Amino acid sequence: MAVMTTARGNYRFAYLYQNQKMESFLDSHVRFFNHVGGVHKEIVYDNMKVAVAKFVSKTEKEPTEDLLKLSMYYVLNIDSVMPDVEMKKTMWKDL
Hints:
By secondary structure, this protein is an alpha/beta fold. The protein has helices at 22-36, 65-74; strands at 2-6, 12-15, 42-45, 52-55, 61-63, 77-80, 91-93. It is built from two helices and seven strands.
């Protein structure tokens, strides 16, 4: 299941998938952007394997190649939270 929550208004979007593959991850973004009629400026991810390629340091993560391509295509900033941060859901900031 993909769940997106907006930072403002606490709006939630969910879509059920049969797997957690990269194709489903990318498709969830397309469906969400189409649903809300636009692309958010910044997206914050938790520690999903499809979003994080590796941990570089305690405060830095390297995004996957597919996530970088997605961010370049939609011209959006990506960020990720560290494991000790309470926020565990993907947050979508400002349309």
